[in-house]
Write a structure and sequence with these properties.
single chain, alpha/beta, 6 strands
Length: about 180
């Protein structure tokens, strides 16, 4: 019984941790981000992203929705350009759970399913970790002024879940723009 509780707790913790997106940002501290009111997508940079054109469209739609919600305007003559880049890697988690002499739910004692008083459980979990970079480029200077990087597990069973995950990544990253917004 205790073993099942521990296993369920570990599984719940892992599932919840997979839903989170870790975000870091970097930016030019000399820039006044209040000057940026309009945006457009930087096709040259986006074309280099190594993902399917369908996923690019999903990411760009999510970025556009988040920026519009913040009051930015999409424009043919923008203040800033938006570009993306992606990376992914396979991760494997291996955990071992040793139980010594736990038996019949009464505490320490004999358990017929154990050999030499020890029960070994090895759990292997494989998943893909994805990283999405969102870059904001000052159009006039042609310089990167802000970058948000989101990293998290990608466990996609269907298209709806994939779109939901992409929206979560983008929302978590864009919520950090402009710098200092959370201080207001």
């Amino acid at each position: 019984m205790m073993k099942k509780i521990i296993l369920l707790t570990f599984t719940a913790f892992f599932i919840l941790s997979c839903n989170t997106v870790k975000v870091v940002t970097d930016y030019d501290t000399a820039i006044d981000f209040n000057q940026y009111k309009t945006f457009a997508f930087y096709k040259t940079g986006i074309d280099k992203a190594d993902i399917s054109s369908l996923d690019k469209k999903r990411i760009l739609r999510a970025i556009e929705a988040e920026l519009l919600a913040q009051g930015f305007v999409k424009s043919e003559n923008p203040d800033m350009l938006v570009s993306i880049f992606t990376k992914s890697r396979r991760n494997v988690n291996v955990s071992q759970n040793n139980n010594f002499g736990w038996g019949w739910g009464f505490g320490w004692g004999w358990n017929p399913w154990m050999w030499n008083g020890m029960n070994n459980n090895i759990n292997v979990n494989e998943y893909t970790e994805g990283t999405l970079f969102i870059d904001f480029i000052d159009k006039n200077r042609k310089e990167l002024v802000w970058q948000g990087i989101g990293t998290g597990a990608l466990r996609i069973q269907n298209i709806e879940k994939k779109e939901e995950r992409i929206k979560l990544f983008v929302k978590e990253i864009i919520s950090r723009f402009p710098p200092g917004k959370e201080k207001k």
